[in-house]
Structure formats: structure tokens, C-alpha cells
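QA checklist item 7 of 12: single-chain prediction sanity check.
[x] sequence parsed
[x] length recorded as 456
[x] structure emitted
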Amino acid sequence: MAEFDVDLFVIGAGSGGTRAARIAAGHGARVMIAEEDRIGGTCVVRGCVPKKLFVYASRFAEDFEDAAGFGWTLDSRPTFDWPTLRDAVANEVTRLSGLYRKGLEGAKVAVREERAVIEGPHSVRLVKSGETVTARHILVATGGWPSFDPPIPGGELGISSNEVFHLPTLPRRMLVVGGGYIALEFASLFARLGVAVTLLHRGDNILRGFDEDIRTRLRDALAHAGVTLRLGCTIERIEELADGTRRAHCAQGAPIEADVVLVATGRRPNTRGLGLDKAGVVRGPLGEIVVDAASTSNVPSIHAVGDVTNRVNLTPVAIREGHAFADSTFGSRSWTVDHATVASAVFTTPEVGTVGLSEGQAVDAGHEVKVFESGFRPMKATISGRHERTYMKLVVDAANDRVLGVHILGHDAGEIVQAVAIAITMGATKADFDRTVALHPSAAEELVTMRSPRAG
């Protein structure tokens, strides 16, 4: 008789958990996975996938306008229908969730659609059925959850990014609270869908942690696109008026009234009530599971991947961590994930793509840097007449010529930076960029044609 019911029990069927489950099963492990919500996790169900589809929808308004400069005439003024978009996106989420389930079942992973909690180093309890399952290894992949930090009176009158995809009607006015990428993406896309958007952020600038030149230029671009910015401002309370309007009272300046208040002030690792304390698992200050490079906690049989560890909170990172864990634990190859050069994008309009160190981070790390940059009007805008600028920046180590970081603001920035990330990961130098023949005409060619470093 087997010592344990399964070799691996995975809590959370998001991107990282499902990848780990499928790879482990492929190595011959007996695997069970539990998900209390919808299979697919944050990215598929309430995050990057539906949000990107919303972003696509928001950009059509400018595309219709730009078409006139290229000779197109629309017979009537385009109109937008929120329920059509909302329901189409919901249907796509359902389809993708089904594919995730099909993938698990095809890999012979036992699926339990209910909450699971840890009872000990090798024991998990399924809450709804009451079943207890013993496991040689337990993997926690429960992701993150929106947080209103710090809590304020009336905070329950706001919604989070979980609910924003299901609004019954398109609001006329929206207040977005926060200055990170989630807040900015929703502020940007709803403004382009015709909503009067105010962005309120307690910091003096948006997108903390990104390169300063990108932060400043994106802030200005959002303002030009019609987003009202209230920076250096904090909310003291939210109240509901008789007609259902939300009124946010601020510590600085006049109150803000809106039909919807979207609170996007951050996310916390989703570890509450999982039974981690019962098993003796150490957590960090935000509740994150503290793990080593191999994604193992202080309890050798309990592991964690993805946002629940609060390392690099991106879906592709969770997928690679899950894959590495499964290969290392159940396969013949042991490897870990390099978190040093992970590309990321912010799907505002204009878009941000970045990989490597910002200029400030490079200086703080002790590098003497040379900065190369290019700002230009994209070719499409010369005919459409749109006020639009693209900005690209290379941060280079002056001592060895290695490119430490690439930062892009403009159309398809995320697509461009994904390819550039390969070069950065390989340790490319500025000379390598220089000897690469440009592809003309393209925006990306600017990355290999910058010759003079910025003065000063």
C-alpha cells in the first residue's frame, strides 16, 4: 500500500498550479489539484486575459478616427455597446477555463473543485466534501488577491479588479484609486471607452519602480488622453449618495463623485485561512510564503509558486516556477528560475515594455551608466494627425558596454521588448545592438540606431 494517497497535491488551479500538476503527472506522479473558484486562476479568469481583450476594444475608437487620414470614410459614427464586449469576453474566459480543465484531465490529474486547506506537512482537507488527502508533496499556488491598503471607511462601496469585468452598465464617471499598472491600465481603457475617468494616487507620480523617464511620459500621455490625475492625494472615506453616486472625500482637494469607484491599490498573497500556521510554514510581512530558489518552504514537503510567494508577480514567471518545481521534484532534471531579466508590459495606451534595470536601479547598484534614448513621432501619426510620441531608452554599463535595461513607451512596446529580452538575457552589449542591421521602416529599428549617449 502506498505511503501517501497522492505524490503531489496542488492547491490552486491557476497558471502556475496547473503547469506544475501537468508536468508532474507527465513524470509519472499521482497528482490531485483543488480549486475553489474557476479553473484558470487570476490571469485567465479575472486578470491579464480579459483585461487585454478590454484594451483591444478601447483602442478601436482611435483607430476609427485615424482611418480618415488614410482615406477611409465611415458611413456613420461608430458606437460602442458595453454588454456586447462584456459578454464576449466572459464567453472567452469560459472557453479558456474549459481548456485548462481539459488539459488537466488529459494529463490524468484528479480535479477537485472546492476549497482545500493544509492540515499538516503531508495532509490536506477538502472543505466541502470533508475528504482528507495525504500527499508526499504539497504545492500552494493560490496567487494574490486585491487589497485596499490601508482600509478606509466606506471602502466596501468600491469594487476591485475582480468585479470590474462584470459591470451591468458602462459607468458615466469612474474613480480609479491607485498608481500601479492595474490602476493605470483600467483608467486608460475606460477613458477610451468614453468614461470620464479620474485617477487618484497618494504618490507624487505613477508606476513606482519603473524607469523615471517612462513614468513621466506615461503620466503626461494619460493626461492628454483625458484621464484626470489627482496625484499626492489620499482618500479619507467613501459615501453613497441618495442616487447611488459614490463620493470620495480626499485629504487634499475637493471630493470626487463617480458612478463606480475602482480600488486598485495593490494585491496581497492569497494565504489567509490556508492552514499554513498549522503546518509551521513561515510567511513574510505581506503573508507571502517564504521559499528558496527551488520554491520550497521551511517545511520540506510544502512548496509554493507564483504570486503567493511575492517574488516576481507575473503569470509567465508562475508558469516557469511551476514547471521547474515539477521537473526538479518528479523528473530527472533539476533547475530553478532566473528572476533577474524578466520582461514586463503595462497595457495602457500608449503601452509600456521594459526589461532589466531602470536607470535609477543601475546607478543604485553601483554601475556607471551611459544612457541612449530616442523620442519620435510614429509614422502612422504623421498621416493620422494624432498627437502621439514613442520613446525608447537603453541603459548601458559604461565599464563593459553591457545593456542593463531597455525601456519602451509606445505602440506594441510589449511585443518589441519580448524579443529584446532575449538579447538582454544573453548579456548583449551596446556594440551587439549597433552591429545589428535595422529593419526599416519600423519603430523597433531605433533600438539599433542610437549612437550618441545622453549628455550629462
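[x] summary fact logged: The first strand starts at residue 6 and ends at 11.
[ ] second reviewer sign-off
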